């Protein structure tokens, strides 16, 4: 699984790296860099979306979406989403605490993910992620997985919009934007640390992954099958990362 990761790039660097637009409201919600990103926190997320619903009011106000010939234009955006997917049909947002990851093998079958796989794919920028093994004394030993040649990785993800029934339809905070990280079985090089790893979208496939114009879940399945195994390097880091309250640059430094 992916239960903790790090983003070392600033918000402006992410906007440039992914050629994305950023609404002022979202910029204020993001705390980048962040060296100990935990579930249920707000995370930078790249997605493509047209200005066509009340849930896009923030981008409409920022004039970052351009409309051509009366039709809403799809635009790449860097948004602030909560990590832990809350499907639109959920009774309350607490379900997101259990949906921080989605398995690639069943992505297009499970009701919680199928619609999002077809219409709401996204990318979560990261420098790498943490996994743990047990030491001889039974204590959790953290490792940081990263690609030394790629400072900004892109985790494959899905996103959803959940309407809060307790808020008015014209309330700008009515819509809760949430996301999940897609995982796959880990390659042999990483399997001794953990049996699963985030799916990483290579730069040459980011456009295809974000393009949900087909509206078909089979497209997501085919793209996942085409993505290569990541070439990640693990190294031990301080056990200070075990505490989610710690968030310092040295947390991702090798011991």
TrEMBL record:
Family the UniProt entry places it in: Belongs to the SOS response-associated peptidase family.
Record lineage: Bacteria, Bacillati, Actinomycetota, Actinomycetes, Mycobacteriales
Keywords carried by this UniProt record: Covalent protein-DNA linkage, DNA damage, DNA-binding, Hydrolase, Lyase, Protease
Its EC number(s): 3.4.-.-
Organism whose genome encodes this protein: Williamsia marianensis
InterPro entries: SRAP, SRAP-like
Entries under SUPFAM superfamilies matching the protein: BB1717-like
Entry protein name: Abasic site processing protein
Location of the region described as Disordered in the Swiss-Prot/TrEMBL record: 49-71
Pfam families: SRAP
EC class name: hydrolase
Ranges of biased composition (kind: Basic and acidic residues): 49-69
